[in-house]
Amino acid sequence: MEWVDIDGDNCPVRRTLDLVGEKWSLLIVRDAVNGVRRFEDFRRHVGMSEAVLADRLRKLVAGGVLETRPYREPGARTRLEYRVTAKGWDLWPALLALKQFGDKHFADPAGPLLEIRHTECGAPARVVVECSADHAHLTNRDVTVRPGPAARPLAAEAD
Amino acid sequence: MEWVDIDGDNCPVRRTLDLVGEKWSLLIVRDAVNGVRRFEDFRRHVGMSEAVLADRLRKLVAGGVLETRPYREPGARTRLEYRVTAKGWDLWPALLALKQFGDKHFADPAGPLLEIRHTECGAPARVVVECSADHAHLTNRDVTVRPGPAARPLAAEAD
Predict the structure, then answer these.
(1) pTM of the prediction?
(2) Which residues of chain A have a CB within 8 Å of the CB of B146?
(3) Are A127 and B129 in contact (CB under 8 A)?
(4) A117 touches chain B (CB under 8 A)
(5) Which residue from A99, A22, A98, A48 is spatially nearest to B22, judged by alpha carbons?
(6) Over the stretch B104-131, which tens digit does the pLDDT of each residue have?
């Protein structure tokens, strides 16, 4: 069965994109993993309308990527702040992979915007595809892609 | 300088998402890296309108992720097919990272939809964040994030 003949409805990439496959959502997650927690900080830093931000935060909380915690500043009412969940941190490699693509293809002439280094030795962190057995770094030419057990044939279109 | 005070205009993640940060675009790239090349196959397999597909293909070609090549079937006029460029293949780790997230959090009960294995040994390929010096696998707790040379302060909002 070729990829083009496999039904994409249960594709994990599609399902992930249904949750975060949208620029604002991923920029909110980017900010959240970098420590942004408060509505007004997301709004100001990502640069989006309150309505879009509120909608995307709701969706990310419903999807389990962010969770809310109440906080209260002196003299103000209780508000919610947003924290990255364990599930949200599972998006970290994808965000770093997008950063890595951007650092290569859209770099500012001055250099990177953020440097992410191994705390212990100071060397840059990077995203790689590797073999889970021998840890060899893999490119697309080193892998074989096969339909898995969830692959179902794509239904023919109705005329 | 905290992340929330850094101007995100030249952020490589934002610039990458300006190019591919949209569900349909990433699903087209997903299909293209899996060997889909023709307009009608993308339309049928991704399941989108011709207008949206044509728009996203144009954008991906303009951004250098895909390139066109003419082909001609017997008795038909010359058409264009779409191939992944070297720049497009640089998105492969990001796509695999999204797949990995989906395989973990949105798995079909039957198992994975696609299995990607190291051809040489048959073990599954995976995406990891590693130290570029000692190759240790890194989580977000193992890294230090610092503003790089391109970091500029975010301008205060006008009242």
Answers:
(1) 0.94
(2) 114-115, 117
(3) yes
(4) yes
(5) A22
(6) 999 889 999 999 999 999 999 999 999 9
Nearest-CA distance B77 → chain A (Å): 23
Q: Dig out the tokens for A110 from the structure.
A: 């001055």
Tell me the nearest-neighbour CA distance from B10 into chain A, angstroms.
7
**H helix or E strand, kind and range, residue B38:** none
pLDDT(A57) > 90: yes
Which residue numbers in chain B have pLDDT < 70? Answer: 158-159
B83 in contact with A, Cβ within 8 Å: no
ipTM of the predicted structure?
A: 0.94
Nearest CA to A88 out of A52, A128, A60, A117 is that of: A60
CA angle B49, A154, B55 (to 5 degrees): 20
Smallest Cβ distance to B46: which of A8, A41, A101? A8
> What is the overall mean pLDDT for chain B?
95
User: In the beta sheet, which residues pair with residue A80?
Assistant: A70
C-beta separation of A46 from B132 below 8 A: no
CA angle, B15 as apex, B13 and B18 as ends, to 5°?
110
Give the ranges where chain A is alpha helix by DSSP (H): 12-20, 23-33, 39-42, 50-62, 86-89, 92-105
Contacts of residue A21 in chain B, CB cutoff 8 Å? 21-23, 26
**Please, which residues 6-35 of chain B have a Cβ atom closer than 8 Å to chain A?**
6, 8, 10-18, 21-23, 26-27, 30-31, 33-35
- Using CA atoms, how far apart are residues B122 and B110, in angstroms rounded to an integer? 20
